[in-house]
Amino acid sequence: MTPLSRMIPGQKGTVIGFTVDSRISRRLLEMGVVPGRSVVYLRNAPLRDPLEVQVGSCCLSLRRAEASLITVRIEE
Amino acid sequence: MTVAYEKSVVGTGLIALCGNPNSGKTTIFNALTGLSQQVANYPGVTVEKVSGKLDLSSEAGRSFTLVDVPGAYSLSAFSPDEYIAALVLFGGIKGQPRPEAVLCVIDATQLERGLYLLLQILQIGCPAVVALNMVDLARRSGLRIIHHRLSKMLGGVPVVPVVGNRRRGLDKLRQQIAGVLSTPRSGTALRFDEITEAALDGMVGADADPVYSRARCLRVLYDEEGPAETEFVRERGETAMEPVQRARERIRSRYGSLASGETRTLTDRASEIFESVVRSKNGPGRTRSEKVDRFLLHPVLGPLVLALLMILVFQSIFSWAAPFMEMIDGVFASLAAVVEKGMPPGPLRSLVTDGIIGGVGSVLIFVPQIAILFIFIALLEDSGYMPRAAFLVDRLFRWCGLSGKSFIPMLSSFACAIPGIMATRTIEDRKLRFITIMVAPLMTCSARLPVYAIMIAAFIPYKTYLGLFNLQGIVLTMLYLLGMVVAVIVSYVLKKLIFRTEQGTFMMEMPSYKLPTLRSISVRVVNRIKSFVVRAGTVILAITVIIWALSYYPRPVVLAPSAESPQAATVETVNEQAGQQIRGSYLGMVGRKIEPVFAPLGWDWKITVAVLAAFPAREVVIATLGTIYNLGTDVEEQSSSLVEKMRKARWEEGSSAGKPVFSPAVALSIMVFFALCCQCGATLVTIRQETTKWIYAVATFAYMTVVAYAGAAAVYQVFSRWGL
Q: Fold for domain B2-182?
């Protein structure tokens, strides 16, 4: 279990859950970041923040701080 | 009987069109309503209300008002857009009934997420139809959705596969909408966990419509301090919230957070439905967009492309628009000439030519620039590039106290602050949104250009350095940069000292790229121009007439031709009289009284008056200067005679009597003032509309005027001492 923000571009994994329950985690759920879905870390923005991930079939842009709230299991 | 009468003749029933952002909702809206749309604001709030006529006369025997509900991921009101979406669906908008039916657009490639919102909406119990959009894209990425099974699992809600931008499936959609209107209700209520159910049982009173009431109570329970709670407290009093609070505590202690009580049930049901209606699931598709993004979001190439795009947008706004602007100008000039000939002289003619044609004309001249800007914005938005631009600049903007989402509003503000301020609606964070609104007018809008053009032409020498850089061009560039630099400083100060925001959120979907269609682009641009023209014809017209009256009255009693030249007064004497007149007008009296206030800026009372008269719109300053310098109001920025008059103007009295009024230092001081001030009535009205409070408009005007005054004074003091 690692925070999403620790992944590196190109890595794949699965969403496990959230470290804290807040308005933000609720919004992430509503946008499709649901435990069990696949996640691919696509890229960083030019200044390494925000970052882009693909959860299921949806691409999301998140700030590093928001990404650190999501826990994932990284695929070997 | 009266009901039938109302429906068939006067009012058409209301149908709400809702869906996730980027689900292609607006494309379907445009396809269903064509050019019959109306843009307005929801009363008292900040979200634009777009509605149009949905003609179902052949399917259902009448037509309806289709309301384009702002895009939402959920009814839990995270952004202003979602707040409105929830209000519309629950019939909470003043003067607008509950919708008779809901048309919910779901992006087939994001089915599971679309189902989440749909399930929330179905709880309301309103007849619903699902438009499963972009089925072609879904199929291409290996996703087959069995739509009749989906319909069955949703409790009989019709599901119509459509391709919005190719207008495929729309006739079927119309038929299904007509169909659900005759059936009482579709959809099934979800069962939540027992704490929620117990709470709902306690809250739902003896209502005529228990399903609707239950759905509302669900929102009261789960959206702390949301619109539903406010309404609930107003209806039943504070005490009714006590059991609700207790239920919330129980849910929190059971699931760790309040939201989970609802999200758990919804996401479980959504994925259950998804699993059983989707036949083949290949790996996640969207490879084409991903390939494009490797280039457009590349750490080096990405920002480069963005910069080039911005340069292209600016270039085109200034160069492509020019011939059209001259054309419009010509039309208004000849219109004024016709009126001048056809009407007897007097207040009425002056009101029509100087006030209405002069004032409104000077605003309508910007229609070509606004059209070009909106074509670009529509192209960038429809293609899906805008979120990418925000992604690229977010870090940079955050450093300035803004967010990547402020980028689009700021970019729009270079044409005009009004669409820029309206574009802040996608920023969920209230404080961040207000900061963006308050600094957007600092971007150099097109109305400042005429002022810069005439001042630079008259007082900045045409000198070239290194064979490439022209002094006039350098000054113009510096003025653009000045606005941006001050915006950065102001937003930093606002963020740190006044709003004290924490980091806002930046969760944003990156939709796949789409080819914009000519139809959707033209519909959007035409509608934008329509609302701009309406604004010019109402707010701006009213302010212009007031300013005209202040500079026209009081009239001196005698204005007859003198004895020496009884026939026709020469042009000079007429102009001379006009000059006398404005000195004695209310505006002139005020101007001379407050001249000392603007003395540190190097201005005489005439400049002061011209600047004050430009309160409704910056470009008015040119017309006013023209009047004051005995030329009549019909003066254009290129007019060499106004330039000549300004060069010849001398101080009438005081220590510097006889010296020229205008110098490069004075010109710079005027330009810096205009770069930083908020002399734009329409912008202030828009700020009021968007923030719902006058205080933000007043605060923006106040801080910008102070900064403009200080900046102009500093520039004048430095440069005049330097001998310029």
A: Rossmann fold (3.40.50)
Domains of chain A: 2-74 (2.30.30.90)
Residue A65, min C-alpha distance to chain B (Å) = 9
Structure tokens at B43: 């009363």
Chain A contact for B575, CB < 8 A?
no
> Residue B368: its pLDDT value, please?
84
Residue B91 has pLDDT above 90, yes or no: no
> Cβ contacts of residue B185 below 8 Å, gap of 6+?
B125, B126, B127, B211
Tell me if chain A has a CB within 8 Å of the CB of B74: yes
Q: Give yes or no for B226 touching A (CB within 8 A).
A: no
Which of A65, A48, A49, A61 is closest to B387 using CA atoms? A61
Using CB atoms, pick whichever of B267, B300, B302 lies closest to residue A29: B267
Evaluate whether B88 touches B16 at the Cβ level (below 8 Å). Answer: yes
Question: What is the DSSP track for B272-335?
Answer: HHHHHHEEEE-S---HHHHHHHHHHT-TTHHHHHHHHHHHHHHHHHHHTHHHHHHHHHHHHHHH
List, for residues B187-227, the tens digit of each pLDDT value: 567 888 888 999 988 888 766 788 888 888 999 999 887 77
pLDDT digits (tens, 9 = 90+) for B307-327: 888 888 767 766 787 788 888
β-sheet bridge partners, residue A43: A52
Tens of pLDDT along B545-587?
777 788 777 876 544 444 444 444 455 565 566 667 777 888 7
B485-517 residue pLDDT tens: 999 999 989 888 877 666 567 888 888 888 888
Give how far B509 is from chain A: nearest CA, Å.
Answer: 4
Binned at pLDDT 50, 70 and 90, residue B150 comes out as very high
Chains A, B: CB contacts within 8 A come to: 119
Report residue B110 as tokens.
């994001």
End-to-end CA distance of chain B: 80
* Chain A: closest CA distance from residue B117 (Å): 8
B348 touches chain A (CB under 8 A): no
Give the rounded percent of residues in chain B with a pLDDT score beyond 70: 85
Chain A positions touching B141 (Cβ under 8 A) are: 57
For residue B281, list its beta bridge partners.
B143
Which chain A residue has the Cα nearest residue B116?
A: A30
**Which chain B residues are closer than 8 Å to A56 by Cβ?**
112, 284
B99: contact with A, CB 8 A cutoff? no
Q: What is the rounded (10 degree) CA torsion for B479, B485, B491, B492?
A: -160
Which of A21, A23, A24 has its CB closest to that of B256? A21
Domain positions in chain B are 2-182, 194-281, 546-559+569-721
Task: Give this complex's ipTM.
Answer: 0.95
Which pLDDT belongs to residue B631?
A: 43
CA separation for the pair B697, B92 (Å, rounded): 27
Would the CB atoms of B73 and A30 count as touching at under 8 Å?
yes
User: Is the CB of B509 less than 8 angstroms away from the CB of A58?
Assistant: yes
pLDDT digits (tens, 9 = 90+) for B372-398: 877 887 888 788 898 899 899 999 888
Given CB atoms, is B263 within the 8 Å cutoff of chain A?
yes
pLDDT tens-digit readout, B424-448: 877 777 888 899 999 999 998 877 8
Instruction: Name residues 167-196 of chain B within 8 A of A (Cβ).
Output: none
Percent with pLDDT over 90 in chain B? 24
Residues B504/B374, Cβ–Cβ less than 8 Å: no
B109 CB neighbours in chain A (<8 A) are: 57
Neighbours of B134 (CB within 10 A): 24
Contact A46 B506 (CB under 8 A): no
Task: Please answer yes or no on whether B395 and A48 come within 8 Å at the CB atom.
Answer: yes
Sign of CA dihedral B429, B434, B439, B441: positive
- Spatial distance between the Cα atoms of B542 and B535, rounded to a whole number of angstroms: 10
